[in-house]
Amino acid sequence: MKKEGYFSSGEFAKMANITKKTLRYYDEKNIFKPSFVSKSGARFYSNEDFGRIQQILLLKYLGFSLKDIKEMVVEGKEYHQWDKFLEIQYKLVEDRIEQLRLVSDSILDALEKLKKRQDIDCSQMLNIIHLTRTEASLKNQYRNASNISARIQLHTRFSKNKKGWFTWIYERLNLRDGMNILEVGCGDGALWKGLNIPEKISLTLTDISEGMIRDVRKVFGEDRKYLRLLSCDCQAVPFEDNTFDLVVANHVLFYCGDVEKACREIYRVLKPGGRVIAATYGKHHMEEINRLVLGFDERIVLSSQCLYERFGKENGGSILEKMFKEVRWEEYEDSLCVNEPEPLISYILSCHGNQNEYIIDCYNEFKDYVKKKMQPFFYITKEAGIFSGKK
């Protein structure tokens, strides 16, 4: 008997333009499960299931393996989140188009040389092969974009401090006309979005991820006279000594293999009297989330390392004081009161640990567990802020 408001597997397969066999296979592999299964074993799908199958089919079209897709698309995503997923997928497709255009140009250039009976540079042909190996970089870009979106959304929606983290930092930059500014580890450029930045200011944004730099370029465009974008490691920035009035490192130094080396690079490129702003967090930051996931499965580790131990509230000052003067800490007063499970779960899945191994296959069970912990809300401590110092 058909369940009201749902589609049978045959109806759903026809509307999604796939086979029933494919639906069963995705179910068996825990990639895409029906919203309802009757006592007789009949599978039924809802309107919201079309959003998830859309994500799966798009990623499959882009060349991802089913193993990758299982990690990238989690069962149980809600309709109100689709706009964020579609934005990320749009960027993914645009990046694929850009990469394929580079491949096309390289091939055409090689063909033109052949027609003119010119020798083809072997290194150029190797570059073509390199350019076509895009799946790994696209997968990392998709994950990075998804993770950043999940983290920002949780803080934007549920923070008690309504000023916002990026606005709070921006106010402390004390920008003046004529300043030359560098941000290392800029991510998607969130600190500078929507701001009326004076064109008399020179702004350089760098990130180790070329995908992130491409995203920033798409948002800001190519015609901003004050803006320069570059992909590089903040442990080896390609700038002359005494270049910048201000260097911003927003939650990036603790990712560096050698934190002190990154700090020395920042010191080197700063002008005498120039300032550094380095954001980080303390050992109590978001600690309730760790306790939450351990209560569900004690094998879960949300991060393979405690980043605050590398550069955090407790030790960041002593690291900076080896090079900078007038080092001080300023804390961002805030906390989270979360009353919806999905944004919190998305945040948890965005972490750099092993959580997906224990949550993805039992998403609905984990969702019910999180719901029970929200009575009436789930409180989360925030302990973040900035160190500032002068050269």
Largest sheet: 7 strands, mixed
> What's the β-strand tally?
12
Whole-number radius of gyration?
A: 24 Å
Name the shape in a single word. globular
Which strand order does the major sheet show?
6-5-4-7-8-12-9
Class inferred from helices and paired strands: alpha/beta
SSE order, as H and E? EHHEEHHHHHHEEHEEHEHHHEEHHHEE
Given as residue ranges, the uncertain stretches (5+ residues, pLDDT < 50) are 75-80
Question: Percent of residues in beta strands?
Answer: 15-25%
Number of helices: 16
How much is the average pLDDT? Answer: 83
| Helical content class | 40-55%
N-end to C-end Cα span: 75 Å
Element layout with pairings:
Blueprint: E1 7-8, H1 9-16, H2 20-28, E2 36-37, E3 43-45, H3 49-61, H4 66-72, H5 82-115, H6 122-132, H7 135-158, H8 165-171, E4 180-184, E5 202-207, H9 210-220, E6 227-231, E7 244-250, H10 259-269, E8 270-281, H11 287-296, H12 307-310, H13 316-320, E9 325-332, E10 335-338, H14 341-349, H15 355-359, H16 363-373, E11 378-381, E12 384-390
Parallel strand pairs: 4-5, 4-7, 5-6, 7-8
Antiparallel strand pairs: 1-3, 2-3, 8-12, 9-12, 10-11
Helix pairs in contact: 5-6, 5-7, 7-14
Describe it for me?
The chain has 391 residues and is α/β, with parallel strands linked by helices. It has 16 helices and twelve strands. Strand 7 (244-250), helix 10 (259-269) and strand 8 (270-281) form a beta-alpha-beta unit. Helix 5 runs antiparallel to helix 7 and helix 7 runs antiparallel to helix 14 (341-349). The model is unreliable at 75-80 (pLDDT under 50).
